Amino acid sequence: MKTIIKYNNKTYEVDFSKPLDISIPLKGDVSNPNAWYIPAPKITPVKDGDFTGSIKAGASTNFNNIFFNPHAHGTHTECVGHITRELYNINDVLKQFFFIAELITISPEQRGNDMVITKKHLESKLKDTTTEALIIRTLPNTNTKLTKQYSHTNPPYLLEETAIFIRESGINHLLIDLPSVDKEKDDGELLAHKSFWDYNNNIRLDATITEFIFVPNSISDGSYILNLQIAPFVNDASPSKPILYKIANS
Fold first, then answer.
1. Please, what sign has the CA dihedral across residues 119, 205, 210, 1?
2. Distance of alpha carbon 151 from the chain centroid
3. What superkingdom heads the lineage (predicted)?
């Protein structure tokens, strides 16, 4: 059933019964995607003496511990606290969860040994000045992104000029299907993170970056309503579940 909503003085027709999930689920084994040189996540029953928290092992409930890193093990949303000495956390910073979003698909450009996303890539695609969130899908786009082991692979990344352009376009929420907006090994410069959050000037506390998404090819480029769901972690980043809803009248 389609619903008529009003947002920022505009009217949108949306079918909330047809969500498009662009998150990667977290699994407790080596098939889970991974980055940043750490082991796979683990989901294991609690063990305490003779007790094992598993119905198969005779317990009354399944009672698991989960060991993971939000930055390394799947879809996550982070705030500027990721790169600041001050302890900003995503649960305090992200207070609004629905946004007008634009999905674009980009084929990164070869620069030396790197594959990069340039300002020129975005200038030709990002034309809607009312967009609050930008979703970048990179090519090639295959299901291998659901299991890819990114450590030491030098994935594509955003140039500093690209992050500045995104910020100056009024985008507050950036989502990308890579483990980071920055180069894997950049000597800690973090140029794209710092430029997007305006780290050296007026820090944008309400801006977020979501990494490690996966946008299936069945979802077309265009405008959507984005519901950016996070777990209430008091941490710079939280596992997240971004959901898109097609705008019928876009």
1. negative
2. 18
3. Bacteria
β-pairing, 157-158 vs 51-52, is: unpaired
Of the candidates 204, 186, 169, which has an alpha carbon nearest to the alpha carbon of residue 84? Answer: 204
pLDDT tens series, the chain, 250 aa: 778 888 888 898 999 999 999 999 999 999 999 999 999 999 999 999 999 999 999 999 999 999 999 999 999 999 999 999 999 999 999 999 999 999 999 999 999 999 999 999 999 888 767 799 999 999 999 999 999 999 999 999 999 999 999 999 999 999 999 999 999 999 999 999 999 999 999 999 999 999 999 999 999 999 999 999 999 999 999 999 999 999 986 6
**Peptide bond connecting 239 to the previous residue in cis, omega within 30 degrees of 0:** no
The amino acid occupying position 150 is Y
Q: Which of 57, 35, 37 is nearest to 46 (CA)?
A: 57
Dump the DSSP string for 115-126.
EEE-HHHHHTT-
Beta strands of 16-97 (E only): which ranges? 20-21, 42-45, 47-48, 51-52, 64-67, 76-78
pTM summary value: 0.96
Helix (H) or strand (E) holding 191: helix 191-196
Q: Is the Cβ–Cβ distance between 176 and 211 less than 8 Å? A: yes
Centre a 10 Å sphere on the Cβ of residue 132 and count the other Cβ atoms it contains.
18
